[in-house]
Queue: 4 jobs
Job 1
Amino acid sequence: MPAEKDHFEELRHLILESDRENYAQQNERIMEKLDELEKELNDPEKFAAVIQQSKAEIIDVLGPVMGKMIKRFITSEINRLKQNIETKSKAIFSFQFLKQRIKNKMAGVSVGDAAIGEATESSLLQIFVIEKETGLLIGEYSPQNILEPDLVAGMLSAIKSFVESAFGEENSELESLEYSSYKILMYNFNRFYFACVMEGYVDEETRANLQDDFLHLTDIKLGSIPLKDIDDTLKKTVEEALSETFSNKYTSNIDLNLEDLNENSK
Amino acid sequence: MKTVSKKIVLLGNEGVGKTSLVKRYVHSIFNDEYLTTIGIKISKKVVEVGDVQVNLMLWDIAGNMMSKTLYNNYLRGAHGVFLVCDAMRPETYESVMKEREVILSKDFQGTETAVIINKSDLITENPNTYLANYEYDFLTSAKIGDNVEQAFLQMATNILSK
């Protein structure tokens, strides 16, 4: 028995020794590879070259991840829109809905526009009244006061001039600028123009209502104001007129609509 | 205190220091990229003349403006124009003087104009001798701030007194 035990010990020693050597060699090779890789990653030129060479593989790896993220975002936004439309459609057989449909029909608003318009919010952020000749701010109305009015009025006028000179035909004027979810609508009159900053989807009805308000304001209050000196007295007059016309108008209408829906569901 | 707003335009060749004049002494929320894209940048300088606060809206027009129509559009309605040239480059002085005669005398007769010779810090000899043949209103240095405030204040005063 002891002899057998000795043989067994000898055999185990031989096998494990060989394994240990194999592991040690493998470890060494792995460490060498890791060192090489680290050197490549720390060298911007080599790293860029690696990316350049593996462009297709990187796209293959990142594509699905990015795609999933974008898909998730779009799905969530569509769901949000769908929920809003569903909430609205609960009132589909209400008297108010039928009344609105008739009103839309008469105003030439499509069902799609009306649905999107009702499902998304649009709100008035700021109105500038700007003298055309000088680009100076005559007055402003800002429920949320987010922009520096003097400088923005000047820059808007410069951009307007640039676009009209570069792309405009004779007597044509810039009417809107869009950036992300913001829209700047411009209503041009003889001596001044209104720049109206809106956030969200602005439907045709809102545009037409704004146009009516600016026409009325110009006709009744601002059409004959002297613009020789743009001072604080003039600004006060213009800003009071703007405030009278736009106070509590074109604000986000979601709360109001929810109230309407509650009324309808009773 | 009463507040009034006035439009001031800065004209002059590329590199004379118009942007430096407005950069260090005025308030702006826009970056200089607009100068290379649409050829203009708007800044604001507030000065007090007696009991009146004057908001000077400064239109800094790119020196290399190619479109004459756009150039004239930017100039339109200006209450005052600064014609800026470089003390070290006589050709920039000739250029603004020509601009003053050809354009301003024709289309902008009621506009207040002032010639600024900038970069006075680079003049090594007596400025009166060095600039003996120049007609100018202000000798400024945007770099060290010489006369910059005075130029804006004087422009505002002249406009208000019209």
Note: Chain A touches chain B at residues 131, 133-137, 148, 150-151, 154-155, 158-159, 161-162, 164-166, 229-233, 235 (CB under 8 Å).
Job 2
Amino acid sequence: MTQASLGDSVVQKEVHAQAQNNGVAANITHTQPLWLLAEVTYRCPLHCAFCYNPTDYDKHTQNELSTEQWIQALRDARKMGAIQLGISGGEPLLRDDIEDIVIEAKKLGYYSNLITSGVGLTEKRIQAFKEGGLDHIQLSMHDITEEINNFITNTRTFELKKKVAAMIKNHGYPMVLNVVIHRYNIGHIKEILEMAEALGADYVELANTQYYGWSLVNRSQLMPLKEQIDEAERITNEFRQKVGNKMKIFFVVPDYFGNRPKKCMNGWGEVFMIVTANGDVLPCHSARVLPNIEFPNVRDKGLEWAWKDSPAFNKYRGDDWMKEPCRSCPEKENDLGGCRCQAFLLSGDAESADPVCSLSPNHHLIEQAIEESKNPQIQAQPIIFRTDKNSKKYASGESKERVEDFHALP
Amino acid sequence: MENNIQPTDIYALAFHHRFQWEEAQNSYVILFPEGMVKLHGGAGEVIKRLDGKVSVADVVADLKATFPDAQDIEKDILGMFDLAVGKAWLRKVN
């Protein structure tokens, strides 16, 4: 799945207008975890090179939460105001209890979303989801060509995805397609949008790759040129005019090519809460890369403590933690200094300005990354796919050479 | 008014959208894929009345009767319809 699928939703911005923290004393929060993301497993039949999951995910595949633990987490989060539920992974359908989770979500009043590659979605299961009250299914698509789909996912899943798209539509679900954009498919934006229209998509998210986890390792291989992104956006705008309200298209702009950082997760511990496969509770997808933070686990003190009182969730609330140039920046409330994980991964300092900001003293790291992605020698390095075998290598420190430049991988 | 809302128009909540009261927010919300909108009191009162049968004029009359002290609410109600149609939260039934 993609980080962008949750991070930059238009509507979350509207939601955020209601959820203020005001940068007051960091240990007092009046925020609510409106969005609960349940990353129910890190197992996945696909091996996408752009996956944001941790490169050492293999460590977390052995100790997944039980059905009962997930149901308890859903109940606790709902009490705290959570209302949008994303069921994600890995591939959530590798668990056989998603039906139970869906039924409980409906009972509790969540608007629930299954975020899937489509692998493992059968007539029987989709029927059970419909009856259980699942609200929608977000399907990842990769390209209009079989070659690129199969290449970037390192699987043969092209035909299957088309079949699953039809199944979703037939069951009366809104069709929500998520397409991660990278060098290999950015030239096909028009065709991808035409495919989405032909499939009857209601929502299409064109999510430019953000560089975390596996996509960071493969950054030089995946990053398109600025000109390609501009062209893709132009084509998208043109298509939008043509289809109007019938198909809503979100184009998630990659932050490497903007000069202002993104307001990551709409603020640390502001509206998002993620529970991972092994029960860790995180304010963002990749927070575990950050040093010297102990993240709470649902098995310990529960979700309410995690959200309200845990040192981890309070660490970057408000703006007391900021350094210069963020601290005195007139734009600090707009972007909160960007992404803590990106700041740390690229500069080694989690409290520094996100290097994508043109005012960051580390902005040259971004410029350098863009240059490197154009270097034929670096481009020619093989892509490292998200596989258990590769993950074991990162976890054991065997694949060091590829991650030396990044501070927190695996 | 961009969407030319007529008194005889009949609207319902758009497909795949859900309208519900949220205790934690102390407000009505509309939920849909990838998002949520929190409605202020008046907007919630408008959406609550849409069942795919009542017309815009019916909603205006009902709200005027329910809130007799509210001044000049017709304009606000039509504005809410206009916004909701523009945002595709509503679909036109007739």
Note: Chain B has one domain: 11-92.
Job 3
Amino acid sequence: MGPLIPQEIIGADWNLFIAFVIGIGFGFVLEQAGFSSSRKLAGMFYGYDTVVLKVFFTGAITAMLGLLFFSLFGWIDLNLIYVNPTFLGSAIVGGIIMGAGFIVGGFCPGTSFSAAAIGKIDGMVFIGGLFIGVFFFAEGYPLIEDFYMSGSMGPIKVSEVLGISGGVVTLLIIIAALIMFKLGELAEKRWPRAEY
Amino acid sequence: MKTSYMNPYLAGVLLGLVLLMAFFFSGRGLGASGAVKSVMVAAVDIVAPEHTANSHFYSKYVGEGKEPMEAWLVFEMMGVLVGGFLSGAFSGRLNWRIEHFPGITAKRRLVFAGMGGILFGFGSQLGRGCTSGSALTGMASLSVAGFVSMMAIFGTAFALAFFVRKNWI
């Protein structure tokens, strides 16, 4: 049955409209979770507010379990789901630069739009920075291209690397997440902050 | 009027369901930085079409039959702005402000927000997606890239937190 648009059960003309509707849900949840606040996001890295950990991992686990169940029920063909390809070197270096941007700027791209949507000027300035950063990458691309394309491993999954089923990987992630949630709750008690 | 934030575990489940719907309808996950790229590419293509046609980077997205603005993520991010606004209206959080730790000035906050944005924008292109597109969506589809992005982003932010602590605590 699913995914509906790649299987042409819903016409491709609808794809961008669906993207817009899904975006409304995404933006609404991000803002309700408090991801429009850089101080709430940064709290993750000082232990006073671990909402990032809780929302991020609960979200990932919910979607993982959803895909597993949908597949089991015959509702979705997992072979038609896009899996982002792995280029190990650029993924690590890109991630390191993004991590620096996160703690310096207090947002990631999605959360900065959520902040800008409710009038946060710091979110808007962060978005301005995003455009400049992407522009630097585009103009510097000839210098970076070799590194960017190196170490291609294709759309490889963790389950394939470890040689275990997707269900077992999901179970291990759930166990790891439950331990981290507990640590997060302890950190919030250890380094409390007044409301901000 | 409700002003407090949603329970984080409930918000996480809802976020996961939104992501699941993206997979179920469109066969792909959520994202954010890709929309910035599309808008930037479209703008540069208007200003300097010869430059974009000759560039290895821009020519992937512009040229015959390619419309950078008709991208899934561009429409999704327009939705994010609407959804965020609705949530802010619903919870009484709509107002113009520069949010910052009381120990620093608003100007310092904006300078660091801009610098962070530049870093994140550059890194998201090198890393083929940001926290939403590579880390969250990648993890949900069990992709190795998703887990590598997640660990690199959060690991680095933890490692550097000490050096910018005066901005936050």
Note: Chain A touches chain B through 129 residues (CB under 8 Å).
Job 4
Amino acid sequence: MKESIPKIGVYVCHCGSNISGKVNVSEVVEYATGLPNVESAQEYKFMCSDPGQQLIISDVKEKGLNRVVVASCSPRMHEKTFRLATQTAGLNPYYFQMACIREHDSWVTENPEKATLKAKDLVRGAVARVAHHEPLTPRVVDINPNVLVIGGGIAGMQAALDIADAGKKVFLVEREPTIGGNMSKFDKTFPTLDCAACISTPKLVAVGQHKNIELMTYSELIDLKGFVGNFTATIKKKARYVDASKCTGCGICSEKCPSKKILSEFDHQLTYRTAIYTPFPQAVPNTRVIDKEHCLYFKKGKCKACEKFCEADAIDFNQKDEIIDVEIGSVIIATGFKTFDPTPLTQYGFGRFKEVYTSIQFERVNNATGPTSGEITTKDGRKPESVAIIHCVGSRDQNHNKYCSRVCCMYSMKFAHLVKEKTGAEVYEFYIDIRSPGKGYEEFYNRLQEEGTHFIRGKVSEVTDIVDDPSDQGKLTVVAEDTLARKVRRIPVDMVVLSVGLEPSEGMQDIARMVGFSLDSDGWINELHPKLGPLATASDGIFIAGCCQGPKDIPDTVAQAQGAAGSALSLISREKLAIEATVSVINPNRCMGCLQCENVCVYGAISYNPALNVCEVNEALCKGCGNCASTCPNKAITVKHFNNDEIMWEMEGILSN
Amino acid sequence: MMDNESLKTLFFETYHGEEIVNCIQCGSCTASCPLASMMDYGPRQLFALAREGFMQDVLSANTMWFCVSCYGCTVKCPRDISITDHMYALKKMAIKHDLKNPKSKMPMMYKSFSDPVKKFGKITDTSVIFRYAFFHPIDIMKNSRLAFNLAKKNRLEILIHPIKNLKGFKKVMTKALELEKK
């Protein structure tokens, strides 16, 4: 319903002296008055102020205006403000056009005369365009209040608890048989040296018991469809072959299982587990899992020892993988990290020398539930006399990961403290730079110096079993330049700990494709904005928390998890969501289903309808970027509010001087 | 000798040394160098001096002349700096612009190796020894016992046998030098 005769009101803003300092505003107003269809033109000191907006509203009512042009700052600043004013005045909000005479003119033009001339051109363009605007209505959709959290580490658990405590339903999906993630493998946490299990197990239990959390362990997300507020997630629950409702977690099955020589994933290959197992004693849920790959029954068709001894009758060899769909309004990704595998760095001898450990293995060595019950001993049971800790293994290295993994310096110093405390051994920290930014972190570094830890500034070039002194036979020699003392050091040690960096978890590419966010060159999730949108992604309704966004320590992870929970809650509490009307539309009569638009759409908003052989736009996902419209070879796509007519008229206006 | 500033410009721009600004001074080059104990400065410190403009110290050091091109440093460098190549560049620069340390015997040693190659297409024991002996006879005297022992075991080639098709080889060399000038 286009009004037959446009009656346009033009308002030129001084913006204090930001615009009027260069542009002769009165001249622009006078010029605008003479433009076609312009009913009135006025100037004002601050158009965005309340009286400024009132000016528009009263003019529309008194002078019968039906189109509004404001010449002021960038639309990014105040387009919303003036659209709202236009709407309040009783017009369609899209009957408004903004001419940017500040960022595009007064701020960047030296000569006042030229600035005024440009302002006139821009106003003329806006006036020409606004006459051809079409009224648009934003669509309103319902928001499903359920949230899906992917990953049950400390980030996922914290986010799930916060949302569940607010009374909303949470689906927590975890790939492993238990929640807890990497934090549950740790012994102590820096710099306060709290016991990691003591602070994380209560969270595991709380998640397991919360009535608003539906915990899905040993499960994976296999598909996510829909748009903000209305997603459908498809989740595969892998068969445990143990009935969770019957299993009491007594553990007799594991005792009787004959396959006992399977390297434990939880202990990072330092110990063995059985084919029916639970990763660690405090696992939640405490339901055992049969590892199909190693179970004798699945391999050879006989055994069933666990079934015979299970008093609860919980073993069920006929269980099948289950695929379920859940309806949700928002997703929090908290997939965490994995540690760098140092095998390619052959000079450090990992896998070749038995006394070379990765840091996550050393966490297990220190842990009371680990292979040595928390004692630090060499594999042949000796107490070490000296231990080397090598920083930056796989991090800050152009051949591996270019970035700094951020937590290694601090956990290395924690190890140094624990070694000193438990064994009294000499500890050598080989570092490039000590990075200890955080509350109490620098103080912890200082404490370690006072404890007599040797800090040697130099990257280790080699770990070798060739010793200089025959009495050191059986030890490992660590070679590095002490760059501050300018000496090449060859230090014999009993144990070597490689402080390996952090890498994104396995399978991030798949989740990124499914959920629709992008990864940076290192594989971490790209946040919406590095400063102002650290927890959101480019896809609305998808939030991120913890190490999936980049390496970080536990306090930062928990802070992000609570932030992401807050963001998700703020979204789902709105119940309804207005979707921007400036989206693209495909004319099915012109579309030939070539799918070129689908290829260029970064928001996954375009899908193909094989029944009609045309592409269709999901308005909820479309951001109106116009990629598709400019790609379409048949000109079947138009972007509302940026259609060819409107753009051509604006150009006509600007160039018609 | 040129001043430090122009030497740095020469090294960085003509000899592609600007890459060393990426060095994080971790010392893994020096620690993996088999000859570090013989050097005035390890590669790490040499680069620290170079990028801060102490080029005269760099050029009078023996570091690059002692490099045996084992590439151990280059393999381990976390910043992927072609350390060995920069050693070659510094040597080349020192010879081409006559910036070598006048007290050092090393440039002469290198020349004793490269000259026979130009002439015979390969190095032979006696051709190297004679060239070096001409400038540093005392050094050769010190090593005469080793030469004698090698000769006893038939490990010292006394007669010079140039390579086959020496003419062709020289053509290749001329072309290579021509290309380098471009």
Note: The mean pLDDT of chain B is 92.
